[in-house]
Amino acid sequence: MRRLWLVLLAVVLCACARPPGKAAPRPPAAPTITKVEGPALNGQGDDVAMEPLVLTFEGVLPCADCSGIRTTLVLTRKAAGWAEGTYRLTEVHIDRGGPIVTTGDWTTLRGSAMDDNDTVYELNPDQADQARHFLRVGDDRAIRALTRDLKPLAKGRPDRLERKQ
Predict the structure, then answer these.
(1) Structurally, how many domains does the chain consist of?
(2) Which helix (H) or strand (E) holds 4?
(3) What are the pLDDT digits (tens) for 103-151?
(4) In this structure, what CATH number is given to the domain that contains residue 114?
(5) What is the reported pTM?
């Protein structure tokens, strides 16, 4: 009886295994958007396991009627190497009030108004009126806030959030 259980277990495990050389299925592509799909921001797939699942950025962004907005953005990937996931944005207007926290989905776009090869993190990709954009700097050492049309903020205004280790 014990051998029968072992044989059945082996059959089930073999049936669930993926055939050699076949990759895991990727999510369907959106044909009209220049969104980076599924795994591998680096485009090679080799370093996917080494990319962090959670990225945290902090800094001060400009404010129209205060000293600035102390900002913390946490990007959480769906899985190792994915170019999309969920976010948590915490903003505190300096000189007044408590934090404003927003959450939602984010995705990665290829290209900005400055360079077609830029990597841009887009918050709320399904809600154009609430979308926010951040330019990836280096290997996620920092991000820079962009306007809705993917252009840099006015010169001299703080726009950089540094990665928190």
Answers:
(1) 1
(2) helix 2-16
(3) 999 999 999 888 999 999 999 998 888 899 999 998 899 999 999 999 9
(4) 2.40.128.640
(5) 0.69
